[in-house]
Amino acid sequence: MATEDKGLHYVETTPPPIRRPPVIELGALGWIKRNLFSTWYDALMTVISVAFIFFAARGLLIWVVGTAEWSVVTNNLRLFSAGRYPPDQVWRVQLALMIVTFMAGISWGIWGRMVRLAVILIVVVIAALFIMPIFAEMLPIRPIYTLVTAEGETIPAMAFVADPGDEITFTLTPVTDETIMPVGFMDMASRIAWGQIELERNTAQEETETPQEGEGEDTPEPAAPPDLIVHVQLLDANLELLSEFEAPVEGGEYSTTIRLPDAGWYLIVVDKEGTAGAMWMAMEPLEPLKTDLASETAREERYGPVPEVEGRRTRVLDAVYLRFAGVRTLGDFISLHIGPFAEALKTTTLILFAVLGFGYIMGTLGKAHEKLTKRLTLIGWVLSFPLVVIVLRGFGNSGWLPYVSTDLWGGLLLTLILAIVGIVAAFPIGVLLALGRRSNLPVVKIFSTLYIELIRGVPLVTVLFTAQLMVPLLDPSLANVDNVVRAMVGMTMFSAAYLAENVRGGLQSIPKGQIEAAKALGMNDVLVTALIVLPQALRAVIPAIVGQFIALFKDTSLVYIVGLLELLGIARTTISQPEYVGLQREVFVFIAIIYFVFSYAMSEASRKLEESGAGAVRRR
Amino acid sequence: MAQRPSTFDIKAHQPVPLWRDIRVLQIVAQIVFVIIVVVVGAKLFNNMMTALADANLLPNFDFLARTAGFEISEGPEFDRSETFGRAFQVGVINTLRVVGAGLALATVLGVIMGIARLSSNWLVRNIALVYIEIMRNTPLLVQLFFLYLGVFLALPRLREAIQLPGPIFLSRRGLVLPAIIPTEAFPIWFLYIVVGFVVAGFFWYIRTKYQEQTGHPGRRMTYAVVSIIGFTLLGTAVVGGFPFEVGLPEISGLRVVGGTKLSPEYAALLTGLVLYTGAFIAEVVRAGIQAIPFGQIEAARALGLTYGQTLQLVVLPQALRIIIPPLGNQYLNLAKNSSLGIAVGYADLFQVSNTIANQSGQSVPVIAMVMATYLTISLTISAVMNWINGLVRIKER
C-alpha cells in the first residue's frame, strides 16, 4: 500500500462545493404521503376517515350553531355553579373560589413556570369574553312572529317590557302559497297552526299531481277568498290605549312603527275578522330573551308586576312562551347564545384571572426564600380547606356569615367539595389500611384485606346507598345527619379502599435495604414507617393519587342517584322545568364539557408532574 | 488481659421481660385491636338493631317468599303475583345479560380502537385519540343519560321507525333485530362443530410439538382452521343446510311481530357501557403493544419471520402478558358500572333490589344480598382473569 511519495503534495485551493444538507424534514406533501397515503389501504382508510369527519363535524356544527337551545345553560348558570345556595350569599362561593385560585396561583409561581400555552389560553379567553358581547350587540335581533289565522283561536294578549324611547315595528305579511316559515321567535300555537297550513298545502299539491280518476262528485269546494282583517291594539300597563291599526289581508304587506313613551310593561291585543286567510305578524326589535332579564322575576323587579287583563295574567314574551324557529345563522348564534354567555361569565372570570395572576407573582417573588415560601404555601393549602368550609357553611346566627345548610349546596360546588372531601378524608384511612395490609400482625392484615377487597368488589352506588341507609341507624346522634354528609361518608369509605391499594404499591416500591438501614440505625418500627418508608412511598404514588382523584371527580356524579343535586342532579332538575322541556342534549353536553375540562386539565397536569419527576425523585 | 464476659454468663441471658418481648407485644396488640373492633362493631350493630326494632323492621329473610306486587318488563317473564325472591333472580339475570354482552363488545371495540391508536395513518390515529379522551374524561352516568334521553328516547315513534338493512328497526320503543332461531337439527350440527374444535386442538398440540422438535414450520394455525371449517361444512352437509331460521321482524300497526326486541333502556345501558369501557380497554391494549421494544419486532423480521408470525409468536404473547391484568380490572369496572342501569330505568340487580327494599322495608338484608351478589360476580371475573393470566405467564423451566 505504501507507495513512494514523490513529494508531490496536492493541496486543494478552491473550497469544496457547498452541498445542501440532506432533506430530513418532509414538506407538507411529503408529510401527507407518509402519514395518510403510504399504502393503498392507508389511502382507503384516509378517505373513509375524511368522510366520517366531514359528516360528523357537519352534523355537530349544524346542531350547535343552528338548532340547539343554549339559553337553558346561560339562564341557569347560577344553578349549575352553586345549586340552591341562597342567591344573596353566592358571593361566599366566589370568595371560596378566589381563596383556592389564589393558592393555586402561588403554587404555580413556586413549583411551575408560566407556559406559553397557558398565557395564550388566558389571553384568548379574556379577549373572547370582551369581544363577544360587543359583537353580539352589533348584530340585529330576529323579530318575534305570531301567525294570525281566520279559523284559529283568538291570540292571547301578549306583554313585553320596554324603556322610554324604544320603538316597535309591526309588519303584517299575508300568507300566500309561496310563503315559507320565517326565522325568528315564535310561540307554540303559531308553530302548530303553521304546520297545519303546510300539511294542507302538501296534500293539495299531491292531489293536483295525481288527479283522481273518478272526478266529479267529491271535488273540493274552491277555497273562500281570503278576507281576514287583523286589528292590533297597543296598551300600556294601565290598559290605556296607546295606538291601534288595522291590516286587511288584501292590502298586502302592512308596516307601522310605534314609539313607546315610558319604561314599563306594554300589552299587545290582537283581534281578527273574516272567514279565510292568514297573516304573519312580525314584531321588532323586541328583546324577549335578554339575559339579564330572562326570568320573569327579574323583569318584575325592574318594571313592576305583569299587567292583568280581566283578572288574568297575560302571556309574557319570554323564553317560556317563545322558542326560536328555523335554523339559526352563525350571527344569530353569536347574538343569542355566545354573547349573553360571555357577558354572564365576564366579571367572575376576570376577577379569578386577576387573583391567579396576583398569586403567581407572589409565588415568583417568594422564590427568594424558597424553602420558607414552600412551607408557608403547604400550610396555606392545609388551612384553606377548613377556611373554605367555614366561608361556605357559615355560623349559626352571625350577621354576615349566616348558616347555609349543606342541603342547599349543589352544582359544580358540591361536585368539587365531594371529590376533595372524598380524597382528603380518605387519605389517613387509606394509609392506615395500606400499612395494615402489609402488617405482620395477622389479625390486622386480615381485617384490612377484607375491608379493601369488599369495597373494591362492589359498585360505588351500593356503598353510597349503604351509607345513606346505615349512617342514621348507627348512632342515635346521627339520626338527623343530612344527605350531603352521608354521601361524603360513602365517598370516603369507598375511596379509602382504592387509595390503600395505591399506597400499597408505593410501599412495595421501597427497597428493603432502606428499612434494614433504618433499623440498623436503631429506629423502632414506628419511626421507620413514619420517617423512612412513608415519605418515600407517598412521593412515589402522587401520580396514582391524582389519577384516583380524577376518577373520584367523575364518580361524584353517582350521588345524583341517592338524591343530591350536584352537577348532574342540577342538570336533571333543569330539564324538568317546563320552559326547558326537551333540551336534555344541550344540558348534558354542557355538563359533559365541564367534567371534561376539569378531568383533562388534571390528567395533563399529572402527566407533567410524572415527567418532571416530582413523583419519582428518589427512584434513581 | 481484660476479662471478657463468659458466653455462659447467666446474667447476659436473662429472659427478655414480657413487656419488651416483641412476640408478646404483637399478640397483645392484636388482642387489643380485636377488642376495639368487636366493641365498636357491637355497639354500632346494637344501635342499628335498636333503631330498626323501633321502626319495627328487624332484618330477616322471610320477605323473599312474599308476593312482590310490582312488575318487571325487562328480561325473563315476571308478573306482580310472583315473589320478591324471584324478582331478585330476574334482576341478577338482567345484570348478567348486560354484563355478558358488554364484556364481549367492549373487548372488540377496545382492541380495534387500541390498534387504531397505533395506526400509521394520522387521521385514524387521531380519531381514536379523540374518542378515547372524550370517553375517559366524562362520567359514565352523564353519557348514559345523554344516550338514553338524548338519543334512544329521541328516536322516532315506532310507526316511523328508522329501518336499517337487516332489517333492524330503530324507534323510541327500542331496537328490533332479526332473531336467529335454532331448528331441531341444531344439536347434531353443534356436535360436529364440537368435534371440529377437538380435532383442531389435537392438531394444534401435535403440530406445536413437531415445530419445537424439528424446527420446521408446524403451520398449526392452518391445520386448526382447516379442521374447524371442514367439520362445520361436513355437519352442514349432513344436516342439509344451516340449522337456523331467521325470524325477520315486521311492523304491523302499533307493535312489532317477530325478531329480537331490545328495550331502549337495555340498548342505552349496553351502548354506554361498551363505549366507556371500550375507551379504557383501548388504552390498555395500546400500552401493552407499545411496551414491546421495537427491537423485538426487528429481530423477528431479521430471523425471517413473516408479519403474521411476528405478531403471533413475538408480539402478542408478550403484549398479552402486560394487557391481561389491567384488562381484568376494566372487566370488573364494567360489571360494577352496570349498576348504573338504575339511572336509565333498566331493571337490573340494583334497580330491582331498590324496589324490593322500598316495598318490603327490609333495606338491610337487601343491601347485604346486593353486595354479596356483586362481590360474587367480581370474584368470578377476577378468578377467570387470573386463570387466563396464568396461561400466558412466562413459563419458567
Notes on the protein architecture:
The complex is a heterodimer of chains A (620) and B (397). A 6-stranded mixed β-sheet of chain A has the order 7-3-9-1-4-13, covered by helices on one side. In chain A, strands 6-5-8-2-12 form a 5-stranded mixed β-sheet. Chain A is globular, with a radius of gyration of 35 Å. In chain A, strand 5 and strand 6 form a beta hairpin. Chain A is of the alpha+beta class. Chain A has helices spanning 28-36, 40-67, 71-74, 77-82, 90-111, 116-138, 188-209, 296-303, 330-365, 370-393, 411-437, 442-457, 460-474, 483-508, 512-520, 525-540, 542-555, 567-575, 584-612, and strands spanning 144-149, 158-162, 167-174, 184-187, 229-236, 241-248, 254-259, 264-273, 278-284, 308-309, 312-313, 315-316, 322-325. In chain A, helix 11 (411-437) runs antiparallel to helix 12, helix 14 packs across helix 16 and helix 14 (483-508) runs antiparallel to helix 17 (542-555). Among the domains of chain A are: 28-65, no CATH class; 144-202 and 226-286, Jelly Rolls (Sandwich), CATH 2.60.120; 404-619, MetI-like fold, CATH 1.10.3720.10. With 397 residues, chain B is α+β, with helices and mostly antiparallel strands. Chain B has 11 helices and 8 strands. Chain B has helices spanning 22-54, 84-117, 122-136, 140-152, 186-214, 220-239, 264-290, 294-302, 307-337, 349-360, 363-392, and strands spanning 162-164, 168-171, 174-177, 179-182, 244-247, 250-252, 255-257, 260-262. Chain B has a 4-stranded antiparallel β-sheet with strand order 1-2-3-8. In chain B, strands 4-5 form a two-stranded antiparallel ribbon. A two-stranded antiparallel ribbon of chain B has the order 6-7. In chain B, strand 6 (250-252) and strand 7 form a beta hairpin. The longest helix of chain B is centred in the N-terminal third of the chain and has 34 residues, at 84-117. Chain B is globular and about 75 Å long. Chain B starts with 21 loop residues before the first helix and ends in a 5-residue tail after the last helix. At the A-B interface, helix 2, helix 12, helix 13, helix 17 and helix 18 of A face helix 1, helix 3, helix 4, helix 9 and helix 11 of B.
